Amino acid sequence: MKASLLLLAIANLVVGIAHNGTAPEGCKKLSSDSDWPPLAEWRAAMPEVEVHKQTAKAKHPDYVLQAESYKDVSAAVKFCAKNSIRLVIIASGHDFLGRNDGPSGLTLDVSLLKGVRVLESFTPTAQGAERPLKKANVIVPVPGRQAAVTFGVGVPAQQLHNAVYPSKLLTIGAAHGSVSVAGGWGLTGGHGPLTHKYGLGVDQFLEFKVVTADGEIKVANDAVNQDLFWALRGGGGSTFGVVVEATVKAYPNERITAADFFITTKGSPYSDGLWSAYTYFTSQMPSMVKAGVSGYFYIQPNSISTLMIHPGDIAGTAKTAAFWKPHLDKMASFQGMNAANLTIFNYGSYKHYFDAHFGSVDDIPDEGCVSGMKQRIKRHGPGGDMMSPTPNGAIPLDSRLLGAEHLQSPVLKEAWMKASPGIQGHLVANPDLKVGNTSVLPAWRKAYVHMIGTRVGNWTSVDSLRRLAPEMGAYANEAFYASANWKTEFWGENYDMLSKIKTRYDPNFVFWTTPGINADFMEVKEGGRLCRVANGGTSNLPPKNDNQNIGSGGGGAINSAGFGTAPKGKSGCA
């Protein structure tokens, strides 16, 4: 490591002599600037800082620090603020918009900040919750009392499921086990298999500990720093500070029935009958949510497939089969459609359902599985412990939220037919839920489904859904990065207040991400340098990202719903 750092220092010195200039005022420094901090200063502030490995396909920040403590995070933020260094934050590495990478500065990796403490209840205080434990404790939930769990930001969804399972509890996370709950997923909205029942990711948070631009660790909850607490629940990750710890609600564990159906056509691809069946199916989704059902659904050239779930009181083979029979009979009645194939799996706990359908990060016993499919294991990423997350998922997406009036519109079929082929659907929201005041896009509170298309290959956009639902907006984590009117598209009426809070806590843009709050106060200039702009805050389009690896092969693409093929030889709930 010392040899590589010495070589980098020599290279920086040579480039610095050739450049012989300082960073322009209002701009982040580059390693070619003469005022770039020497290696000794980096190591004095962050002894464990390392050279960021570069490849022929990818250009990353100059240095990387894997924080092992909250003090490490504070030191990194202070150093970048003092020296005007570009700061990139990564938790688990999942970001379709490529905001967890950059071409210069420092990558701050918070994936090692772990630990879990399970709580019988939570009361917000100025001091904040007790720190997480290295090994999660076990509690006996008190009936009628809201349980909670405090954990480090490096704990991904599935590890959190595992930690609370012995206490007969469950938590809300993404439909992908390695996604950080308190990272960008939860800070921007956060949808998953049970968000229709318990609320979005933003609705789960009871408290944050966050390192703000001054390098100080602040507690944010309903008792202290309420403005920051509000902004963090929907305003986006890497924007107001670095979350190092969070406390979320935990719920009594419950059994899950999964209903997977597959229905095919007899005729040509994307036939009229297929679209008619799909339109009927999606038009019934408001009533499905009211019945307690959620899930994921896909349309392919000659088929419709789903992964739907029935939790708690509506679980069970007989109830599930009875629920789906009229819907599947109706879909099969359209011209050219075959009868549907319905497969039902029962699980004694949410954890076992999740492990079986989305991939396990550990080997688990078969207990809890009444009947089910083979357990999947984690499909990608640098090891089950997430020791070295890499940027994944940099791929152009497009999306739209739809409410009841849109799903029952007389022009819905036409809108589906004009949308991207292979569009993915997520039945994950519920307008009838009573949730607290957060800064998430208000359209989520009217929506039932979140639809995704991609702008890759022959796939185009979801413009037809924009025309169907012009007032709704899109989920900022899975949206088109160049969306017009992006502030209202992604944050609606909450944007102006979020902008003021961003200015209050980070006036000098220690944290910058795009699309993000006040992103257009900065711009990327030639050479990848990030600089302030004179007319900030006026752009109709979000500024271009400085991540040079998007589309270059420097990052991987993942399926948004977390579906994948299970590796052979691994079995579990079978």
From TrEMBL:
Keyword Flavoprotein belongs to the record: yes
Cofactor requirements of the protein: FAD
Domain FAD-binding PCMH-type: 56-253
UniProt entry tagged with the keyword Transferase: no
Entry GO MF terms: FAD binding; oxidoreductase activity
Keywords recorded for this protein, A-Z: FAD, Flavoprotein, Oxidoreductase, Signal
Top-level taxonomic group: Eukaryota
Signal peptide: 1-16
Cross-referenced PANTHER family: BINDING OXIDOREDUCTASE, PUTATIVE (AFU_ORTHOLOGUE AFUA_1G17690)-RELATED, FAD-BINDING PCMH-TYPE DOMAIN-CONTAINING PROTEIN
Similarity comment: family membership: Belongs to the oxygen-dependent FAD-linked oxidoreductase family.
Protein name (Swiss-Prot/TrEMBL): FAD-binding domain-containing protein
